[in-house]
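Quick start: read one record
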Amino acid sequence: MQEFLIQNLKFGHFLLLSLNSSTLRLVKRVRGLPQLRFRSITHRLIFGCVIAAIFIYSVSYWEIRPILEQSLGTWTIQLAESRVNTIAAEIIGTLRSLEQEANLIVQTNLEESTVPLLQTLMAQKSEIHAIAARLSTGSKSIGLGGDDGEGLLSHCQVSATSNYPFWTAPYQLSPSNPSFGITYCLSLQQRQNIVAIELTLHWLKPLVTRKLSLVSKFYQLEMPPPFVIAPQTGQGLVGTSASMQKLLQSANLRHRLAANNSGPQVLEDSSGILVTTSLPPTSWIIGIAIPNTQTRMFAQKFLWLIIGSMTKDMILMCVAIALVSRQTTRSLRALLTSTEDIAQGNLDTTLIVVTQHDEVGRLAKAFRQMRDALKIYIQELQETTAAKQKMESELSIAAQIQRSMVPKIEVASSSHPRHKLSALFQPARVVGGDFYDFFALGNDCLCFVIGDVADKGVAAALLMARTITLLRTVAKPTSTPVEILCALNDQLCTNNDECLFVTLFCGVLDLNTGALTYASSGHDLPLLVRDRCIQSLDLETGPPLGLEEEALFPQGEFLLQPDDLILLYTDGITEAMNPDGELFSETRLIDLLTFYPPANPAQTIRLIQYFYRQFVAQAPQSDDLTILVLQYQPSSPFSQDMDIVEWTLTINSKLTELERVSQHLAEILKAESIAVENIEDTLLIVEEVLVNIIQHGYDNKEHQRIDLQVKISTGILRMVFEDWGKPFNPLREIATPDLSIDDEQRASGGLGFYLVRELADQVDYLRQDNKNILTIRKNLK
């Protein structure tokens, strides 16, 4: 048993090492599995205990089974040897006591006077069945307690070759009595006097069974039945079961048993284990035969008993964990309820008082501090929010004031007989530092400026307001751009401790001659658009305003021709960035105006604004954006016909392009203050015409070109559709549908173009230069 405990301790150490490595491997494998979700910590702990128990029991079963079988086998053999030796000593003692009493009686010559002593011996020993004696005096047998004395003495004569005294081999008492008996033979006077004492063996089986039947009432484990055999005759005196006989018939065990018939011994082979010892007075062999199947069953049963005991302990442990966990998490559940109340905005909820100093107590204390800090934070946040709202309101008012300081911010802002002006002012924040202005200098000159204050936000807006106010103050009817910049610079350099500065471009246009004089204080030079050619006005710029008191500003001159466009802008357009960090750049602006030459200031701003939005996409606006476009139009009899809005758009022949065209056209019409009803009718006309061109002109082929030109003049909307598809005249090839019949009976098609003709005031078709040209006019008044 000591060896078994030592082996179990070694196995426990090995099992812990195995569990560490196995657990690490298991954790790595289950990381990729979906995580189990538990509603409470108690469930998680119990689940962990169950999984750990299953894993430990599985490993224990396969690891401890061979060790347990070996240990239990050794323990069983040792226990069997101890019991066999004990019962052997008791049987030998019984036989030796009988021999001693018989020898004391017959120490003298046997005579008839010794018969009473033998009768007394027979009465005292219940095992004695009969006694017989042959006396030398009369040379005849005397039977005591039996009918056949000569038959009893014959057992001693058969064994006469043996030295007296001796025990005979077992024999059956009579045909009618299945019990076995043995005879003890002793003699004196050279074998002339012989005494035979016959013993029955009815006491042997109860004695052996009682002593060698190993039953554990606690574990309900039972050893195999014992046996007693006589090797000379092969008779089984005790234990003749089929399993024992089968084991004893094993050739190997039987051979070894015959070769070693004295002393205790343990015989093992593939069939089982035989624990035996001999009885010297009789040469019997007593022992226990344990088949291997029973040893394995015994080990298996014992193993399950161990696992059952461990399972019981694990269940008790889970119950203890559940109780402790419930007790521990009671405070956590109360904190959870308080958390839900706080999530609903109830910061005055009652918090549980935890007197513990463990993690739960510290958590409750931290939670109370968090609640108090949150109340203070929310109070401060409300005050900050109120202050922010007040500031935003003030900034909103400031933005309105700022916008009121520049001319009305609309794309089409003026329609002077001798010039056109359009402007776009879009701050990056609520207020900005960009500005523009234009005003008359006398009766025949127009002064226009565009500027950009360093930085942006409130500080830039204040400097912008100051600059515009000073601009109107220092500008006189006879002032030149250089004089205006010098006067502004002197005023801005005064008390400018923060070194704020302004870049500004100033131009003065003589409306009679078209002579343009201009000067720049560090601002980007304007672009001139003339006959589809784009160029920058040539000038050496001066320093920004507000930095150098004695700054000099060169002045340039240029003669404008009719319909020339002057584009002034700030760096908010050229330095605009898309989500990839790419700049819009001046080169892109020039290429845009070259590819889509604008006809008037309003179209110029719409064009730049559209492609600017396409370029920046979802990127935030990084700087203020300001554009001012001036077109010189001297007085002429045709000037009243030039006040039109014109837009040309090239699209791909994909049905998916229709939504983009509709959105873009809607923006153009809304900017011209067209009525909502007319906008909806126009969008429906454009959609139906484009669908007819794609389906009938191009047969649904993609990557084909369609040009759409939109013009608005004197209350008339004119749309021209050009495509290079097959000849298709919708006025002739699309029949007018019969609306008097049901939809099921009427032929499909034709309704769309019928709707176009109903919504439009005039529809014309022309096939020219391999193009289909469809012109649609609609009266907007």
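The radius of gyration is 62 Å.
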